[in-house]
Amino acid sequence: MTMFESGLPIVSSARARSLIAILAVAMAGCSNQPIATSQAEPVPKNRMMSMAYAAPTGSSGTVIVKRDTGLMGGGCNWVAAVNGTDIASMAPGEIIVTHPPAGEVFVSVRPTAALCPGGLLEATTKLEPGKTKAFRMGMEGLAGTFRLQPTAP
């Protein structure tokens, strides 16, 4: 084994490089991936908490919240709320479609259990009648930072 001037070893064996490659592939398999709106599954009825904003009106827009797929944070559901109303408890790869009144809309998500990573995340958007805004939630990076951010509908 060769050493850097700092005293740290340089990985020189084929076996060690193979192990590093296998670990990198395994870590990539655990990462979360955004899901296309058309691929996401609707939240099952037994995890819907409110039917508020379920039907469109002449003055409403559409707000979509979808959760990334992947294993990071996958053991915890997250409650998605619109304008302070809890709508659904979401698992990875799921989606809710709501129709709140146009104007400033508040979207929030929070874990369902104290042992789940993260905390309350909030975002706002200006919604116009008949228009659609979408948000995605998921964990990013090796530290597992949970995010709520705008995305393509």
CATH architecture of the largest domain: Sandwich
Give the uncertain stretches in residue-range form: 23-29
Strand content: 35-45%
**Residue share in helices?**
10-25%
Which whole number gives the mean pLDDT? 84
Largest β sheet strand count, sense and barrel closure: 5 strands, mixed
How large, in whole angstroms, is the Cα Rg?
Answer: 20 Å
CATH topology name of the largest domain: Immunoglobulin-like
Helix and strand element order: EEHEEEEEEEEE
Task: Please characterize this protein's 3D structure.
By secondary structure, this protein is mostly beta strands. The protein has 2 domains: 1-30; 41-151, Carboxypeptidase-like, regulatory domain (Immunoglobulin-like), CATH 2.60.40. Helix content is 11%, strand content 39%. It contains 1 helix and 11 strands. Mean pLDDT is 84; it is low at 23-29.
Question: Quick recap of the structure?
Answer:
This protein is mainly beta. It has 1 helix and 11 strands; from the N terminus they run E-E-H-E-E-E-E-E-E-E-E-E. Strand 5 (78-82) and strand 6 (85-90) form a beta hairpin.
